[in-house]
């Protein structure tokens, strides 16, 4: 029997497809791939009807309107391992099994969390004050949001949208950079700023308060925008109740699907509530290839149809010879020690849940031995820590001729990559950009087990990364000494994760998503 993977759905037991009150609206989408009698199904239990987790109860897998019967019940058993998600509102459990009628079913449970009496009745003035302060803070935040909503509604009531206003905004930067800059500036170069009104609104971080001027501007800009373009987590966008015909386009700042983000982290430390509305109102999000579509759909809690493999705008420079030459020149101007020597970039990601807890274990490094190897290889090592990591590197003066603190440089790391011969990283998405240059990488994963437990990856780390994985500093130095990088993995990695190696991603974003009618 030849099966059509698009005909599979999940439906609560007791709800018929033609039920006028529930029916199709109660069904959950099942993703399938393959053909004939061999089809691989993906069920995202966090993305049921209304983009919310599957409701409590029993869900049956259907093929068309008929129950999908399981011919190999033993195949269901391995799915039972990871069925409970530890979320703040209480354990959310999903148990797959074969029902009495031989059909595949999911039993969903959600036990609401309860507080112990000791937790609900603080026994000290300090705890009382802390709770009172937190309550006031939340009340103040709710009041500010309510006032903001009222201002947006007031503007909408008196001002019609023109169909030509495009807002570029971010709560993670103070000016146009990255994907936002590439798209905005390309529209200007194409003369589209004559046909569309391009506006910008920025602040350096989510925690920072807006200026009085921007507090007054923002309701107007959001109420009158026809297209809102963002590149990161943007809280106010999820709260304002944007009109259905306003397009919200997410140009996520990272390339590729590597370590889990967003709703892919449900149940992990610092992970979101699956009942949140964050990210779910995006009209579209972009990725670099079809391979990444299901991962970003999962991360943002949106249907796969909204995720478009246009390519990443800021990656266009990697396919522009003039831009690459300019980046190389800038790197050598910034770091004259690079000229005529092998350049090694050490660029790990941070540990922790975010900016407030970010760190890196500098005790893993031995500057003396690294310096000796750099002399032996006639190399220079640039240390570029993640911007969240604020601890100084404290490189001894005797070693600074070969080991450079690049974290204090304002140079864009993407421009710096053009001068790099060998990249040493760990779990950073910088691997995607660097892979397009066809140069070798090493992965210093000294805490791989801990990182998987707290953050995890979309695919197994060791088989995913395009280079040799080492877990000790000794092994890292040995791999560099012997030029043992497993560099043969790089080309295949780039081909898999970049559907377009043509430098046209920015134009695709503009034409297919922003100005498309």
Arithmetic mean pLDDT: 87
Give the % helix: 25-40%
Overall CATH architecture of the largest domain: 3-Layer(aba) Sandwich
Describe the global form: globular
Question: What separation lies between the terminal Cα atoms?
Answer: 41 Å
Tally of structural domains:
3
Structural class computed from helices and strand pairing: alpha/beta
Q: Under the CATH scheme, which class of the largest domain?
A: Alpha Beta
| Main beta sheet | 7 strands, antiparallel
Summarize the structure.
With 517 residues, the chain is α/β, with parallel strands linked by helices. It is built from 15 helices and 21 strands.
Description:
With 517 residues, the chain is an alpha/beta fold. It has three domains: 5-110, no CATH class; 136-311 and 505-514, Rossmann fold (3-Layer(aba) Sandwich); 316-497, Rossmann fold. Helix content is 29%, strand content 18%. The protein has helices at 117-120, 125-158, 178-189, 212-224, 235-239, 293-300, 321-334, 367-377, 413-416, 430-435, 448-454, 461-464, 473-481, 490-497, 505-514, and strands at residues 8-12, 28-29, 31-35, 38-42, 57-63, 66-67, 84-85, 92-98, 104-110, 165-170, 197-202, 227-230, 247-250, 284-286, 307-308, 342-346, 379-383, 403-405, 422-425, 441-444, 468-470. The two termini are 41 Å apart. The model has no long low-confidence stretch (mean pLDDT 87).
